[in-house]
Amino acid sequence: MAHIFHISTDTGGVKAFPIEGPWKNERVRLAGMTDADRAFRRQWLKDQILAESEPAVVPGYYEARFNPIRRMYRWPLDTLFKPLVPLMGYETAAMYRWYAGRIGLLIGTAYLTYYYFKYNQNDWTSKSGWRVITSRETVAPDDPRFPLVSDRKVGADYASRNFKSSVI
Question: Which helix (H) or strand (E) element contains residue 117?
Fold first, then answer.
């Protein structure tokens, strides 16, 4: 019989096995534990303490996990946050690295969008660029400028795409 593994699950399709045993819940522990249960729980808690050499860094694991292109674009933040691992711990440094990367992408996207709209305007000299059209200002009857007359006087003023204000 062929086994079908579900790669998208955390356990690969295998039912999760609680390694902590039945004493994960504090209420179960308070309900009553035998001396053997207490010894098992004490040993289990001791086993959770990592040695100084753990977690072990396996040589070549990083290279096997990430392809060369991904290692290239991860290099700047990896270099920046690697000295922080002994100070903060791996999980905290990895979290800050993740947030720094996302914030950097957000700021970069904002700058690129600003640059695009500033220097790629759609005018009469090119077909490219986004054409940004603003509406006329709304003027109510109680405003002293009412009625606000349009600054477009002749037909050539409409859809001129800044042709008249060109220095050419």
Answer: helix 90-119
Per-residue tokens: 46 = 């001791």
Angle, vertex CA 112, rays to CA 101 and CA 74, nearest 5? 25
Is 40 within 8 Å of 34 (Cβ atoms)?
Answer: no
Cα–chain-centroid distance for residue 128? 31
| Model confidence pLDDT, tens digit, residues 34-74 | 898 889 889 988 988 888 887 788 999 999 999 999 999 99
- Long-range pairs of 17-23 with CB within 8 A, sequence gap ≥ 24: 19/44, 20/44
Burial pattern 101-136, b for ≥16 Cβ within 10 A else e, equals eeeeeeeeeeeeeeeeeeeebeeeeeeeeeeeeeee
Q: Is the pTM of this model over 0.70?
A: no
